[in-house]
Amino acid sequence: MLSALDRVYLRRACELAERGRGSTSPNPVVGAVLALGAVTLGEGFHRMRGEPHAEAEALRDAAERGSDVRGATLYVTLEPCDHQGLTPPCSQAILGAGIARVVVGTADPNAKATGGIARLRDGGVAVALADDAWSRRLIEDFSRSVGRKRPYLRLKLATSLDGYVAPRPGERHWLTGAEAREYVRELRAAHDAVLVGAGTVRIDNPQLSVRPPHARHKPYVRVVACEHAAVPLESAIFAPLEGYAPTVVLAPAGLRAEFAALEACADVIYVGADADTALDLERALDALRDREIASVLCEGGPTLAGRLVERGFVDRIDWLLAPALLHGPDAIAALGTNVAQTLHFDRVERLGPDVLISARRMEGNACSAD
């Protein structure tokens, strides 16, 4: 059982973990707090891959404050690692520091890194596994992507109340308000890459930037999935931006000649066999993961969104509903195909005049409640 004070410190660790969002990939975000009773001794979070983990950062902070951590409690959002990777095992650092108790938000889903809880208990440290909902949400992207070839994929949809994105084909139609647009920019900053289809580039000509830019160590990546044909060279998505990697174009390997001109301004990834003239989405996502892109935010359009949902590649859907009705003979539906998915709806929020409904795809026949 955790005390009220334990819960306060664990929430603080979760807040700290969020500061690493967008920079730690492919590692998860993690936060940690060292405390003795109601006195905070040190705090830390994982800043980027290859740098010290949250536990080590909290120990460093405590040392700089002159705090004695012997007999203290460590609150950490994720199970301390027990392996030697780019950094030493955190379990050994905790044992060496003389910490008496560790409160862990959630167990590590990565089989290569797990074992920290057992190591600490064997070393005489009292460990409480909180199974905390916020701690689990922090690593949803990591939990879904670790151990598989494709990245975690989050789909953002913005539609009218009756499920349409535009009143007619080929027309750009802005639906959501300022609060919803700011939410989407935050989502872009939280993922390794933002993905759109070629149709969205041709119609909306988006820049897909984060304004104002968020401080992060890992460059932003913009991705265009081209199923059959290239997009114009002068598209805004190819404009060089500080803090952004060259835009990635996913193209069928059988259409190299058609896409060759884009190689001057983009990182063109040719997918599939030399005879393929249509984009294989599964191989395209695998190619992104090969570039160490572990999380992707897809912003459509309808054809790409529908295909991703239909194939079961979407891990979470964020559906923004605008107070408008667009039904008509030529209206464009949000998803370009009829799809059926089992979803767990876990968030409903008002964003100015719009409503956000968020759900994650259930894996198997059960889903843990938050």
Number of helical regions: 11
The H-and-E topology, N to C, reads as: HEEHEHEHEHHEEHEHEEHEHEHEEEE
Mean pLDDT: 91
Whole-angstrom Rg: 22 Å
Indicate the structural class. alpha/beta
Biggest sheet layout: 9 strands, mixed
Secondary structure tally: strands: 16
Shape by Cα distribution: elongated
Which range does the strand content fall in?
15-25%
Helix percent reads: 25-40%
Spatial gap, N to C terminus: 18 Å
Low-confidence stretches: 365-370
* Major β-sheet strand ordering: 11-10-9-8-12-6-13-16-15
* Quaternary form: single chain
What does this molecule look like?
- With 370 residues, the protein is an alpha/beta fold.
- Helix content is 26%, strand content 25%.
- The chain has helices at residues 4-18, 54-65, 90-97, 116-122, 133-138, 140-145, 178-190, 198-204, 256-259, 281-290, 302-310, and strands spanning 31-36, 39-45, 73-78, 101-106, 126-129, 152-160, 164-166, 193-197, 221-225, 248-252, 267-271, 295-298, 316-322, 332-333, 343-351, 354-361.
- The strands form three sheets. It has a nine-stranded mixed β-sheet with strand order 11-10-9-8-12-6-13-16-15, with helices on both faces.
- Helix 9 (256-259) links the parallel strand 10 and strand 11.
- Helix 3 (90-97) runs parallel beside helix 4 (116-122).
- The longest helix is centred in the N-terminal third of the chain and has 15 residues, at 4-18.
